[in-house]
Amino acid sequence: MDIVRRFFQNPKQSFFLFGPRGSGKSTWLKQCYPEALFLDLLSPTLFRELVARPERLTERVKGEKKRVVILDEIQKIPEILPVVHQLIEQKDGRQFILTGSSARKLKRTGVNLLGGRALLRFMHPFMGAELGKMFSLERSLKTGMLPIVLGAPDPADVLKTYAALYMREEVQLEGLVRNIGSFARFQESASFSHGAVLNASEVARECQVGRKAVEGYLEILEDLLLAFRVPVFAKRAKRLLSQHPKFYYFDAGVFRQLRPSGPLDRTEEIEGAALEGLVAQHLRAFCDLDGRGYALYFWRTKAGLEVDFVLYGSAGLIAIEVKRSARLRSAELAGLKAFKSDYPMARTILLHGGVERLQIGEVFCLPCEEFFHLLRPGLDWDKDL
Fold first, then answer.
1. With a threshold of 0.70, does the pTM exceed it?
2. Does 109 have pLDDT greater than 70?
3. Are 248 and 352 in the same domain?
């Protein structure tokens, strides 16, 4: 695959850049900073050197005299963060960029991410608008949007090994769980909750482990940036609302790979969950990249009315419902209508599998394919759609 221009904007000061393996962090950095001092902490030689003598980093940085210093996979040696902190405090014009595919070890070191001396940024899988004409909705629902997958000669084969790679390198080698088999069963069981509330007790029964173990596994998935939860939108609520967040794997292709399927599974059910997850990962990336303070929620009342996604920020309030079908029924608008009744200022949008733009009352209906091409940082939800 040709180099794709990302929407991510490089900060001018030091920053952490977190993102799942294969999301394009290293490729982007080497493209933007070709002259930087690039230290790959996955290198066994460098790893041993800095673990034994963290202060060796100071010698390397001052010896090379590069303006930009990149420490790739910083979670491998969190002990060098105090050294980085000292170097930043010297204020000699150097910019430090620290990448990571896991936040777990850093959380437990007590370093507190350099005490705010470095910004916190995230690299997500591709967005449809980044790929432009290369974007295919049907392909994305099957193989997802990870650069390492889409750029491979055989994307399906790379996707098959992706989850196993994480389990081996990030879970097993780091000793995050005692029983790797139980964790593998958990990942598969959790895939049935993709786009829904994850019932920890039910998953625990299926995996034959305790509820606390399941909650720990869920935390591991989130720390490894493999999954995320979307909270309920409850600002100035006028109705009784559900309290539990929804669960998503970070990429539609990873979900499809983990989700078992057979003759008793309905294809439309899996594809519907994949589509909702694809929208979720796009909106999550949009919130991070847009810069207007949008946060991602969903809305569900105790009575069963639901809106799949709610964006809330200084630039407005957006409610989005996702339907795989091209045929729209009035019942499918009920959640958006109820939300509009409670929040008259909201922009209500229904994404569907058809090809026509429609305005049904106060609900704007937009084809999913077109939505993925249009969604980008800075989008004006009234003028650009």
1. yes
2. no
3. no
